[in-house]
Amino acid sequence: MKMYKKSELTIVDGMLVSKDGDIIMPDIRIIAQANHLETLVQKSAYLATQPEATPMPSLDGFKRVSIKDGDVEFTATTPLMDAKAQEAMALMGELDDVATVDRANDMVREFKDLLRFVGQDFVVDCGDVIEFFDTPILGSVLELTKEDVIDAIAEVCGMAKENLTKHEVTVDPLAPEE
Fold first, then answer.
1. In this prediction, what percent of the chain has a pLDDT beyond 90?
2. Cβ atoms within 10 Å of 134's Cβ, excluding its own
3. Could you give the CA distance from residue 17 to residue 162 in angstroms, rounded to a whole number?
4. Are the C-beta atoms of 97 and 167 separated by less than 8 Å?
5. Mean pLDDT of the chain
6. At 17, is the secondary structure helix, strand, or coil?
7. Using alpha carbons only, what angle is made at residue 157 by residues 155 and 32, rounded to the nearest 5 degrees?
8. I need a surface site. Which of 5, 19, 55, 174 has the fewest CB within 10 A?
9. Exposed, middle or buried by CB within 10 Å (0-12, 13-18, 19+), for 173?
10. Cβ atoms of 157 and 103 closer than 8 Å
């Protein structure tokens, strides 16, 4: 095994190449995770371009108008019920936020090898197996940062940039597994 500085490597057709033209093969898990994240980012972008779904037509709330209908109708004010309904909707929104953050945290753990790789200055050549980085949207894995990977995960999970400060990532991807 040999160690190379990332700054001395380039990517040629998805392969890490040294200045001498040697192909460097990093840990296969890093390539697999980078390519998998690329696929998720592309799928997320593709779905984002799709038109919004519209509900199927429904007769919910339909009331037939009749000539026998009167002009008088009683209504009740329900401020407490309205407040409880708003509270329930807010609670559902928070539960959705928690589920989204849980999914993002799971993905951070899933991509821990890639996160470790992008945070290091060196690449260890692990052998002869040839696998290619295929990351046209993410870009060069030699230039990716932890923030780039976290942003990609957040995007895949549907977390808008303005919500990233609201939801702190509490998982340390480099911490030992429990």
1. 74
2. 13
3. 38
4. yes
5. 88
6. strand
7. 80
8. 55
9. buried
10. yes
Distance separating alpha carbons of residues 141 and 163, to the nearest angstrom: 26
CA 1 remoteness from chain centre:
34
For 12, the enclosing helix (H) or strand (E) is strand 10-12
pLDDT exceeds 80 at position 174: no
> Contact at 8 Å (CB) between 87 and 151?
no
- pLDDT tens digits, one per residue of 125-160: 998 878 899 999 999 999 999 999 999 999 999 886
Q: In b/e form, how buried is each residue of 150-159, taking b as 16+ CB within 10 angstroms? A: bebbbbbbeb
**Residue 150 and residue 156: Cα distance in Å, rounded?**
10
CB atoms within 10 A of CB 149: 24
Q: What is the pLDDT of residues 70-84, one digit of tens each?
A: 777 788 999 999 999
Between the ranges 91-105, 119-133, 161-175, where is the mean pLDDT highest? 91-105
Of 168, 133, 154, the residue nearest 25 (C-alpha): 133
Rounded to an integer, what distance in angstroms lies between the CA atom of residue 175 and that of residue 157? Answer: 22
pLDDT of residue 161: 60
Parallel/antiparallel/unpaired status of strands 10-12 and 15-17: antiparallel
Which residues, in sequence order, are CB contacts of 173 under 8 Å at separation 6+? 108, 109, 111, 112, 115, 116
Q: Pairing mode, if any, of strands 15-17 and 23-24?
A: antiparallel
